[in-house]
Amino acid sequence: MAKDPYATLGVARNAGEKDIKSAYRKLAKELHPDTNKDNPQAAERFSDVTSAYDLLSDKDKRARFDRGEIDGDGNPAYGGFGGGGGAGHGGFRPEDFGGFGGFGAGAEGVDLGSMFDGLFGGRGGFGGGGFGGAQQRQAPRGGNMAYRLAVSLPDAALGTSQRLTLSDGKPIDVKLPKGVEEGMQIRLAGKGQQGPGGAGDAIITVTIQPHPWFKRDGDNVLLDLPVSLVEAVAGAKVKVPTVEGPVVLTVAPGSSSGRVLRLKGRGFTRKDGTRGDQLVRLDIALPAPDSEAAQDLAARLEGWSDPQEPRARFGL
Q: Which of 32, 296, 298, 316 ranks highest by number of CB atoms within 10 Å?
């Protein structure tokens, strides 16, 4: 039976996107396979939580689930006896036929068994040979295969397709979804183990690798950029690395360490296709104390005093 994604994440049906994402992140951190290697139940829960988040974070799928068009696994929801209950969901209601006693004059002699035979094909329609019997007789599919996909931070930000080798040795290109996050799972239908009823699926867990100088902050990318004292004091145009290549950034004269400059649209791709920003934090790099440059700087500054009082706000 398909699970209720709201119950899986522990959120109300009217929960907002922020509450859903917060609940997912909390559970994903708690149940992540890397921290629960000896707990298969946690790994299964992690998969359920990720699937629930994938459905509820997709506005279209969430709306279809709320309307009863799909189940918690994203499959079409078919009605039946004990199903959706209403005629709009394919459910059977006696009152739609005037009740079991309302088939018109002389209907007292209606053979209900014959009626069900005609509807569901053969007697015993509620058993293995009739209604639902075809589903029970379906051959089982093969098992799912789990994979872990390590993605660089720039590739994750840009949604660059990744090459993955399956267990049968065949390579396949995996398209990263927009808004990809650490621990997100991607399902490739029919790429799992073979079985009498067809192949299972490949379940791919995404791991975003640490980067030597980029860091992620939500949809933004953070970068500490070293600048020389001359560049900070006099201003300069400097090259800055981004997830898609270097760009030129203008450092205004008199810039201090810690000043943050913004490169619009250079961050992570969001689910709606827009992108976050890259935040560049300036870090004034002074020459090494024993270097010739440091000695030259000291000589130039000898006898000079800065009229400003940078610690005046501390009352010192």
A: 32
